[in-house]
Structures are given as structure tokens and as C-alpha cells.
Amino acid sequence: MSLQPLPLPGAELALDPAWLAPAQADALWQALSAAILWEVHRLRLFGRELAAPRLSCWIGDPDAVYTYSGARFQPRPWPPALQPLRARLQAELGVAFNSVLANLYRDGRDSMGWHSDDEPALGPQPVIASLSLGATRRFVLKQRRDPACRLALDLPHGSLLLMAGDTQRHYRHALPRTARPLGPRLNLTFRRILDP
Ligand SMILES: O=C(O)CCC(=O)C(=O)O
Ligand SMILES: [Fe+2]
């Protein structure tokens, strides 16, 4: 497969539902679920500190410090299993990613609320490459100006979603919780922190 553009006004999105072959995706799941030091990130929302409804880990080069939702994260070192992916993404997309936010959604009750990945350190037009492993979950985007302008995508095991251009400026996105009984899902968003 290859990355196919998804039409959404003011956004720049592309999806490859099978960026990794199933066996590669299985091996990566095995390697990463054991190698990543999962923790509950505490986020500041409306002046309150809350435990995020998922497990997370900020991974990156030593200087790729990341500040979001009022918290500051020192990167954990790259697990060996991620290095070939980083190299492949750089070769295919021409972006020197220096960090990854890993999220583990333990079941359908874990989720991510509406947000944009628009921290100043990512620059005005961040390129974010989102690799999904495990249970297929629904990912939704909603335009800031016209919330009726939205898109829902199912992100299967081994899929790669690319968000670029003005996507973060014009849209928010979320991974809603679901009552359906679902197994765990691991998501990796490769990012480039500018001038770390
Ligand atoms: O889990 C996902 O697909 C979305 C993750 C996300 O939006 C993020 O890490 O910023
Ligand atoms: Fe995001």
C-alpha cells in the first residue's frame, strides 16, 4: 500500500492502512509493549490536574524536551525497535523526526480528548506521523471554524496516518472512548521538535 491523500478542506492528511505488513506490525507490538516504560501522565485542564485516561511515554533524542498541557517531559531513550521505523519515515517523508509520543489505550475506556498538536515547539506546520498497532480505533477530526466539517477514520493495526500543513491550525482531533469490548491499542506519533 501507499499513503493516499484524504480530502478535508484546509487540512493535509494521508493514510496508508497497511504501512507495515501484518507480521512486522505484530513483531513491533511485541517489542514495544515490553520495552516502553509506560506511565500515567498528569495533565492540566481548566486549572485542574487530571490523570490522562491512557498510558503514555515521551521518547526522543536527549534534547527533545516537550511541554504540553502544562507539563514538561524529559525524553526517554529510543527503544531499539523504533530506530528502523524512524529511518524509514525519514527516507519516505523527508522529515527528521526527533521524538515520539507513545500512547497505550488499554481498552475501549481509554481515550484522548479533543486537541491540536500545535505547541509552538512543533512549528507552524508540523508534520506528524501516527502509527497504530493493535485494536482498530476510530479517530475523528473536527474543523475549528465549522464543527460540522469533520472526518472519522478507522486506524487499523499497521496503519500510518500523516497530518501536515495547516491540519493542526484548522482542526482538532480526538480518539473517543467506546463501549464496544476492545483489546489494547498502541499509537506512536512521530514529531519534530524544532531547535531543541
Ligand atoms: O491515538 C491516536 O491515534 C491519537 C494520538 C494523538 O492525537 C496524539 O498523540 O497527539
Ligand atoms: Fe494529537
UniProtKB/TrEMBL annotation:
Entry keyword annotation includes Iron = yes
What's the domain of life for this entry?
Bacteria
**Occurrences of domain Fe2OG dioxygenase (ranges):** 96-194
Q: Which UniProt keywords apply?
A: Dioxygenase, DNA damage, DNA repair, Iron, Magnesium, Metal-binding, Oxidoreductase
Please provide an example of a Pfam family that matches this protein in its UniProt record.
2OG-FeII_Oxy_2
**Could you say which cofactors this protein requires?**
Fe(2+)
What is the name of the protein in this document? Alpha-ketoglutarate-dependent dioxygenase AlkB
